[in-house]
User: Fold this.
Amino acid sequence: MSEPDSRIPGSPGSPGVALVDVNNFYVSSERAFDPSLEGRPLVVLSNNDGCVITRSAEAKDLGVAMGAPWFQIADQARAWGLQVRSSNYELYGDMSSRVMEVLGRYTGNLEIYSIDEAFLTLNGTHPAQRRTGRDIKATVRRNTGLPVCVGIASTKTLAKLANRWAKGNQEFDGVCHWDLVPEAHRQSLLRRLKVTDVWGVGARTAARLNAIGIDSAQDLAAADPVMIRKRFSVVLMRTVLELQGTPCITSRESTGNEQVLYSRSFASPVTTLEAMHQALSVYAQGAASRLARKTLQGRVLTAFAATSPFSTGVKSSPSICIPLPVHTADPLELTRAAHRLLPLIEEGVPYIRAGVIVTDLQPAGSQSVLLTLGETPGNDTGPLLHDIGRRFGRAAIGLGHAGLRAGSDWTMKRDMLSPHYTTKWDELPVVKAR
Amino acid sequence: MPSGFASPAQDWFEDRIDLNRHLIRDITSTYIVRVSGDAMEGAGISDGDELIVDRALQPRHGSVVIAVLDGELVIRRLSVTTSGTGSGTAVSLIAASPAYPPIAVPDPDDLVIWGVATRCLHHV
Assistant:
């Protein structure tokens, strides 16, 4: 944790935390290069065109369910006029990098939280922080075409709520500063929200909270932190304190099975490429083992580093978002991807934090694995293949691509893939001069 | 050139020319697009050329812009003229080839400019 702030949290002049996230990130990225998709119902499908993972507002209105298997709705899609795209990880990765770079210009303390969301520390008075939030929204939109919402508050947990509020209410125009909303409105929002709507409160904890009469976010905010620590956990106590306006969550490791985030502050600043190389290796492997424990594999990796927000010297928060060639939890693959951050690291600059986020997760085992048999001593590969084939079925193993079932990732089904507009020279957006 | 007591050997360590540095103002707002058609031939922009487009630049009278027309990205030169009395402005998108008539924009508020072209990578 950072040193305690003697200033009163939430009072004018104390630093604010902004949570910036892209609205419907995948859908918005597709629309940024294909304006004909604007205003039309659009969904993006998961790996192998399996099921719906992102829906535009229009698609939600049609009643397309999140997670709906594509084969079930494919027939109806035409009648609905539903537009469909395969996951364009290359495009989303590049757009994510652009957004994060823009955000880094507004703060000395950028904490990337997922492919499309980040926390930023903002200084100045509350109205000044809100002005910065509006400027961020306008600049990201102008530079990338992507719409973002900004929630600002004295704590991350409240910033999450403010962000959610900004999304749901036109009047905020996408930017909500918690401390500039009248107290009565805030209380009425907290009353309407369930405890599960609060950042970091899962269904199991919620059930136990409900059992002792804590139903709404307002109930949780009014709970006695000491009681919560005794009956639940220190983690939940921090959430309560944050709801009350006391910042005490520095970073969350991970949320459920959506992503794996592995990030640490360094004991002493890292100033050399070599040390950063090492740190990224350790964190990538940490993320890999966390994935393995959950039997998950990821398709996109974000690596980042940051200098101290309190430093008076150079402030820098480089990040890079790398689409992986296949879904993987392979530590070597993840480490190699994480090292792609290194060209953005400046020798001599004191970085105090670095981390790795893996997103677009799917259960492991749905992919084929390539074994290297070159090291096999002797010439017993043939019998080996045969034995495995007999034990596990003919399609279980094969040399090269041969003998494998359909569905491996290098032949991944992406039938409705948009061009790699920003990463492939042959697939640039086309502008009409006719 | 500033003079000083730097080692003369330092002059030898000069980086190669980096086109990204010279041609791109802001990496977050810069995109490369490909031209299809001959409507901008007169401006030196041919079919198949690549353009460097900056989405953050303010389009002005005379800018070569990528506009959104009927859901498509269309390249034209932006024309903004003030009428005689200065009471109103007329906005239109002009091709650089007589074969394509100007596209009038009745309500400038409806015009979406996707980006401003800053360089043309013309195939010679």
Q: What stands out?
A: The first helix of chain A runs from residue 25 to 33.
